[in-house]
Design brief:
Layout (H helix, E strand, L loop, with lengths): L6 E7 L2 E7 L8 H16 L5 E6 L11 H6 L3 H20 L4 E5 L3 E2 L1 H8 L2 E5 L4 E2 L13 H8 L1 H9 L7 H6 L5 E3 L2 H16 L3 H11 L6 H15 L3 H14 L1
Parallel strand pairs: 2-3, 3-4, 4-6, 5-7, 6-8
Antiparallel strand pairs: 1-2
Helix pairs in contact: 1-3, 3-4, 3-10, 4-5, 5-6
């Protein structure tokens, strides 16, 4: 993919698989990036050379700004909307079903779908500035697709708080307290050193044991293949409303 539309790339080093995404608009996620990201995670999951997967984004600022507003505003029918939001379902399910632990590296703020990615990881590292926000309701939709992953990680109460107070960032410390982040670090360098230490340990651990543990950890989510697509249809319907279109335009104008 070109730099203008975003990109996903992956590589393996010392039995550690790295999947990295980028978009010039704060690492937001248009549909093609979502599909490429899901495919990259699935491929890494079946590659015997990779024993553990690290999910990360490029840059030093935002980890992920969530859905691409440009693509949202261009959606003009329910089928297209459902297809777009099913991209988030694809990534979350790829992370869930990968027979390897997925470690997320959160180097900055996570919004909307970005919170979903951080939640769907099996183990998430972050810096102290990595605040989180579920902004979907503020633009007339809701965190329907990412909701199950977020709620599974932080619990219903914290998920409800984030969903209702859709314009407020919750601090990284709050996110760690709720279980979204396993560790916080003052600098990216400190975080990367810690990630490398854990990933190196996992890369020499028993692959069969880790795969079996992963299945146990995700017990009860077997219906997500269908559930998340159903949820994508909810967002696909709401994104067509005048309320949502006007709200997105206001957000885009404010961001200029």
């Amino acid at each position: 993919m070109s730099q203008e539309t975003g990109r996903v790339h992956s590589h393996i080093e010392n039995n550690i698989g790295y999947v990295t995404f980028f978009h010039p608009q704060s690492n937001s996620l248009p549909g093609q990036v979502l599909r490429d990201l899901a495919a990259a995670i699935e491929a890494m999951g079946t590659n015997d050379e990779a024993r553990v997967i690290i999910l990360q984004s490029e840059g030093e600022k935002a980890f992920c700004a969530g859905a691409s507003f440009d693509e949202l505003i261009a959606i003009d029918d329910h089928a297209t909307g459902t297809y777009f939001f099913s991209g988030f379902a694809g990534v979350i399910n790829a992370m869930r079903k990968a027979p390897k632990f997925v470690i997320a590296r959160v180097q900055g703020k996570a919004v909307g779908g970005g919170v979903g990615l951080a939640s769907a990881a099996d183990y998430t590292f972050a810096v102290s500035g990595a605040a989180v926000k579920l902004s979907e309701l503020a633009v007339g939709i809701g965190p329907f697709v990412v909701g199950p992953a977020v709620e599974r990680k932080v619990g219903k109460s914290a998920f409800t708080q984030m969903t209702i107070d859709a314009t407020t960032f919750h601090s990284a410390e709050w996110a760690k307290e709720k279980g979204l982040y396993a560790h916080l670090y003052n600098t990216v360098e400190e975080m990367d050193a810690a990630i490398n230490t854990l990933a190196t340990k996992l890369s020499s651990s028993n692959p069969e044991a880790m795969s079996m543990l992963k299945k146990i950890m995700w017990e009860g989510t077997e219906n997500w293949d269908e559930l998340l697509i159903e949820r994508a249809g909810m967002s696909g319907k709401l994104v067509l409303s005048d309320f949502t279109r006007n709200a997105i335009q206001k957000f885009k104008s404010a961001a200029k």
